[in-house]
Amino acid sequence: MVTSAAGSRARAVPQWRWLTVLATCACLVGLDALVVSPLAPRITHEVGAPPRVGGLLVTAYALAYLVAGPVFGPLSDRWGRTRLMTLGLAVFAAGTAATGFGTNFIVLLGFRVLSGVGAAMLVPAILAHVSGQVQPRRRGAAIGVIVGAMMGASVAGVPAGAFLAGAVSWHWTFWGIGIAAAALLGPLARLVPGGAPTAAAGDAPIRAALGDAAVVYTLLCTFLWTAGLQGMFANAGLFYADNFGLSTGAVGLALAGGGAMSVAGNVCGGRLADAVGGRRVVAVATLVAAASVLAFSLSTGSLVAAVAVQVVWGGAVGLGQSALTTLAGTLRPQARGTVLALNSSLQYGGMMAGTAAAAALLQADSPFWAVGALCSVCSALVFPVVTVLLPVTTDSDPS
Q1: How many CB atoms within 10 Å of residue 166?
Q2: Residue 339's closest CA among 135, 194, 128?
Q3: Residue 69 CB neighbour total at 10 angstroms
C-alpha cells in the first residue's frame, strides 16, 4: 500500500515516471554486473592476470553485496527507502567509475567491492519501495519491470559496452556507467516519492525475518537459483571465445538474445505471479532452466545451437527471477526492506558460490559441461523447495 507520508508526493508524480527512474537505476546496476562477462578476457589480458580467473571480478562484487545487504536492509526499514537509494546510487557510481581507472587485478577487485556495496544499498531499497508503493494486485508486474530492467542490460547495454571496449577501451565502459549513474541522482531526489520508515529503532527485523519459515525457504530458492545462473553466465564469454573464437564484441552480441528473452521472461513472470501465484511460476521455470543450462554447456559444436539454447535459458531465468522476487516482497511487510535485502544478498551469495565453483572447475581444466551440470543441479534443487517446503500461503499478501 502507499503510505500516508508518501501520499501527496506520490500523487504529484505519476507512478510511471518514478518507476522509470528506478528501473533505469536498476538497469545500470545490472549492466555493471553483466558487462564483466564479455569483458573479462580482455581485462585479464591487459592487466596481466590468468584468463581463467576473470570470473573473480564477479565474485568480488557478489561477496561485497552478500556482506553489505543484511546491514543496509534493516537501515532502509528504519531510515527510509529514498535516503538509502540516494546514498547507494552515489557509492555505486563512484565504485564503477573507479573501476575504469584500474590497471592492476587486485585493485580492480577492490573497486568491484565498492560497486557491490553501493548496489547492496540501492537495489533492495528500490524493490522494497516498489513493493510498498504499488498495490498488491499489480506488484508482480512492477517488480517484473525492475528486475527485467536489471537483466535487460544484456540486450543492448552489454553489447554496447563490449563494442565500446573493442572500439576504444574497456575502461570507457565503466566510466560511462559511472557517469550515467551519477546523472540519475537528481531525478531520483526530485521524482521518487518518499516513504515513512516501517520499523522502529528497537526492532530486530533480521531476527524476525529469519524466524519465518517462508522467508528462509524463499532465500534458499534464491541462493540456488542464482548459483545455477551465474556459474555458467559469468563464464559465457570464455565459453564463446574458447569454443567458437568469438571476439569481445561478438560475445556481447551472442549474449544479447538470451538477455532479450530474460527481459520478456521477467515482465511475464511478474504478471503471471500476480495471476497464478509465484510458486507455480518458479516451479515450471526451474525445470526449464535446469535442462537448458546443461544443454547450453554441451553445445560446443554449433554456435547457432548454443545461442538458441541460451535464448530458452534466458527466458526461463527471467520468469523465475521476477516470480521469486515478487514472493519475497510479499513476506513480512513491516520488514520488507530487510527481507528483500536478505533476498538480494543471497542472490549475490549464490553468484559468488556459483562463479567461484565454476572458476575452480575451469582452473582444474574441467570441460564446460561440468560447469553446466553443476548449474543444472543447483537450478533443479529449487523445484522440491518451492513445491514441497515453501508454505502454500506464501503467495498471499494482505498488505
Answers
A1: 19
A2: 128
A3: 27
- pTM of the prediction? 0.75
What is the distance between the alpha carbons of residues 335 and 322, in angstroms, rounded to a whole number? 20
SS (HEC) of 25-75: HHHHHHHHHHCHHHHHHHHHHHHCCCHHHCCHHHHHHHHHHHHHHHHHHHH
Q: What angle do CA 88, 154, 294 make, to 5 degrees?
A: 115
Q: How far is Cα 226 from Cα 322, in angstroms, rounded to an integer?
A: 12
8-state DSSP, 331: S
DSSP assignments along 170-232, one per residue: HHHHHHHHHHHHHHTHHHHHHHS-----SS-TT--HHHHHHT-HHHHHHHHHHHHHHHHHHHH
Is the separation of the CB atoms in 181 and 33 below 8 Å? Answer: no
Nearest to 303 by CA among 259, 257, 371, 365: 257
Produce one character per residue of 2-39: b if its CB has 16 or more CB atoms within 10 Å, e if not: beeebeebbeeeebeebbebbbbbbbbbbbbbbbbbbb
Query: What 3-state class would DSSP assign to 134?
Result: coil
Q: Dihedral angle at the C-alpha atoms of 27, 32, 34, 35, nearest 10 degrees? A: 120
Unique residue bearing C-alpha cell 596481466: 48
User: What are the pLDDT tens digits along the chain (399 aa)?
Assistant: 344 444 444 456 677 788 899 999 999 998 888 788 778 778 888 888 887 777 788 778 878 888 888 888 888 877 778 889 999 999 999 999 999 898 888 999 999 999 999 999 998 889 888 887 887 778 888 888 888 888 776 666 667 777 777 777 888 889 999 999 999 999 998 888 766 555 544 456 778 788 888 899 999 999 999 999 888 987 888 889 889 998 877 887 787 788 788 888 888 888 888 888 888 899 999 999 999 999 999 999 899 999 999 999 989 988 898 888 888 888 777 778 888 888 888 887 787 789 889 989 988 989 999 999 999 999 999 999 999 988 766 555 444
Contact 322, 264 (CB under 8 A): no
| Environment class of 137 (CB within 10 Å of its CB; exposed 0-12, middle 13-18, buried 19+) | exposed
